[in-house]
Design a protein that fits this description.
Layout lengths: L6 H11 L4 H8 L3 H8 L7 H11 L3 H5 L17 E2 L16 E5 L3 H4 L2 E7 L15 E8 L1 E6 L2 E6 L3 E5 L4 E4 L6 E8 L4
Antiparallel strand pairs: 1-2, 2-3, 3-9, 4-7, 4-9, 5-6, 5-8
């Protein structure tokens, strides 16, 4: 997938293929109908949580949304170019007015193994958004570089390189890079979320 992935056009194509109006999709997803229009016109880049809700209304996973028809390696080994970009231009909402990009790249076919392994890069200010994530999974990760602020339920902790986490993803959670440097995380989630 290229960096010029058109989220609006892709969402419009999927909605049209499902023969849903913007209002019908919004009702299914539990979002304001104007939000669908704004995203389809690329006037706003949705947070991960919002895009996930909308795709839930289409019964489409994030992986399928950003998927391409190119040959997908099945492993057991994967090169740098084999990782699947799940975010493209989905800019996570940051505290400082939208600054900071979050990049999520998946190793292999998460559905085939019922395990999603991600290489995550948080630029300074990157944030999964004020709307907490919550899904039926278990997830864990290891901070390779930098600092990651993790909120799970009412608990908040800044994890530094060498520290890790593991929790029930049904608890509301949020990831954020509040530092001035890049943060790199390797994470796993089962069953796959994105």
């Amino acid at each position: 997938m290229t960096d010029d992935f058109d989220i609006g056009a892709r969402l419009n194509a999927l909605r049209t293929a499902h023969r849903l109006s913007q209002r019908e999709l919004a009702a299914r997803a539990g979002v304001p109908h104007a939000q669908i229009s704004i995203i389809e016109k690329n006037k706003s880049s949705p947070s991960i949580a919002t895009l996930r809700k909308i795709l839930g209304g289409l019964d489409v996973s994030m992986s399928d949304f950003f998927g391409d028809d190119q040959r997908k390696p099945h492993g057991p080994f994967f090169g740098v170019d084999d990782l699947k970009d799940l975010t493209s231009r989905v800019t996570a909402r940051a505290i400082d007015q939208g600054k900071g990009r979050l990049t999520l790249r998946q190793i292999g076919d998460s559905r085939a193994y019922n395990l999603q392994i991600l290489h995550e890069i948080y630029e300074p200010g990157a944030d999964t958004g004020e709307a907490m994530l919550q899904h039926f999974s278990t997830e864990g990760g290891y901070v390779v570089e930098g600092e990651l602020e993790l909120t799970v339920g009412e608990e908040v902790r800044v994890l530094k390189a060498g520290e890790s986490y593991l929790f029930d993803s049904r608890l509301p959670h949020r990831f954020r890079n509040a530092s001035d440097g890049i943060t790199i995380v390797i994470s796993a989630c089962t069953p796959p979320y994105l």
